[in-house]
Amino acid sequence: MITMMPEATEKTNTSKTPKMRVGILTGGGDCPGLNAVIYGALLRAAEETEKGETMIEVVGIIKGWRSFNFSQEELTPELVDHYTQVLDIGELDDLHTKGGTMLYTSRTNPFKALASITDPQEKEAKRRAIGEDLAAKFKTLNIDALITVGGDDTCGVAAAMSNYGNAKVVACPKTIDNDLAGTDFTFGFFSGAQLASNTLDNLTTTAHSHQRIFVVEVMGRDAGWLTLYAGLSSGSDIILLPETPFDFKKDVVEVLESRANAGYKYHIIACSEGAYPTSESLARDFTVISQKDIDNLPKDGFGNPILTKLNIADKIERELRSLKSLESYFNVRHAHYEIRSVVLGHTMRSGTPSVFDRVLGLRYGYHAMEYVIGGNFGKMTSLQGTAIVPVDIIEGSKKHLIPVDSDLIRIKNAMISVKHKSKEKLFR
Ligand code: F6P
User: Fold this and answer.
1) For the segment 198-245, what is each residue's pLDDT rounded down to a tens digit?
2) Are 191 and 353 in contact (CB under 8 A)?
3) Quick check: helix, strand or coil at residue 227?
4) Distance between CA atoms of 264 and 201, rounded to whole angstroms?
């Protein structure tokens, strides 16, 4: 247990000790490991405070960017009080073991106004004005520097306030989607992948009992990392990813036929929420969705399509249900033909972080505070190999999808193509 030493408290009261107030906020979708980052930052702040060189007060900023979205006039002392809270490490024992974020989160986008501006020059001028305004809010919120913990959207806001307003910001990359270029892994990813893998494993018993096809929708937006890791880990029979649009006939129907032919009575399809059919397959094989449905999905505060509204697993289920020829193919081989779809959704972001995510979160938070102390602003913490290194926020938060020529994709293809060659081993 770490508590503030009385010595440090004494130093707190010594007017000679410079004091720094460092804000920390969590933005975007939550994930396991956020609290570990907060705790890591608190540990480094406590360490520095104990040295007696700088007294660091860590200020939790509540609900992502929400407080930054108020105008200076609206940010009354009461509101500032409502949205900020000094964090005392002595009261937050073992915070890194807890899921979610104690600071709450939101998808508030301070740059939302940019979406309706079409003229590039006007857009850039507005972006600059907002960036400067956000940086000016530090004074109002009574912070000297800020650590932001979030995905590409949160990092984008942090980068803009740093570039345009010269704000003292350090970012920590977070997302279960693992889709950021500047880091080998984001925390939250392995916790989410493990939960998805466990569910895919578990579903095989009910799928087996009823002789069913299960289409399981996995989060991850336009990145297939979660589906690929969970699908490979659990041995899913078909794995559909956004990076490699699928042909319904070849990648789903024909694989199911081969499996039924080999005597398999149940089948698990791991499907990314952002996995779409090729345009040819969409036009040829889909009656329940069209390109228009995909293009017109509702969007969140940062303009990301809300993919659960499409619910691709349900659409695949419905197309499969209508395939009478496939049903006969199954029945002739004494296999029952029934399909169910399941959306894992937010269950994947729930619960406590894995060991890896706890430790990575602690390291990100600790190093982020280290950058703040060293004046190394405009940087994002990143995992490279086994080391934590600073990278530029904009560069680091660029999109990173699964390379289609990666060994992971080759392993997936190899696994799926051999799976139906062996006979079903469970009871008939
Ligand atoms: O980006 C993380 C993520 O969990 C995506 O995988 C998913 O599409 C999205 O957030 C869901 O967002 P929300 O929590 O706003 O429904």
Assistant:
1) 999 999 999 999 999 999 999 999 999 999 999 999 999 999 999 999
2) yes
3) helix
4) 16
Q: What percent of the chain has pLDDT over 90?
A: 90
Q: How many CB atoms lie within 10 A of CB 305?
A: 18
Q: What is the span of the domain harbouring residue 142?
A: 6-187+353-396
CB atoms within 10 A of CB 416: 19
Tell which atom from ligand 1 comes closest to the C-alpha of 221: 8
Residues 345 and 357 grouped into a single domain: no
Q: Which atom of ligand 1 is nearest to the CA of 226?
A: 6
Q: What's the sign of the alpha-carbon dihedral 269, 275, 281, 285? A: positive
Contacts of 33 (CB under 8 A, 6+ apart): 174, 187, 188, 191, 353, 357, 358, 360, 361
Q: Which of 149, 189, 219 to mutate to test the pocket of ligand 1 (most atoms within 8 A of CB)?
A: 219
- Specify the CATH number for the domain of residue 272: 3.40.50.460
CA of 249 to the centre of ligand 1 (A): 29
CA 160 to chain centre: 21
Within this chain, do residues 147 and 90 fall inside the same structural domain, yes or no?
yes
269 and 168 belong to one structural domain: no
- DSSP code for 167: -
Q: How many Å is the maximal CA-CA distance in the chain?
A: 86
266 & 411 share domain: yes
Q: Say whether pTM exceeds 0.70.
A: yes
Tell me the two tokens of residue 119: 């003229």
Pair (126, 215) in one structural domain: no
Residues marked active site are found at 177
Q: Indicate if 119 and 247 belong to the same structural domain.
A: no
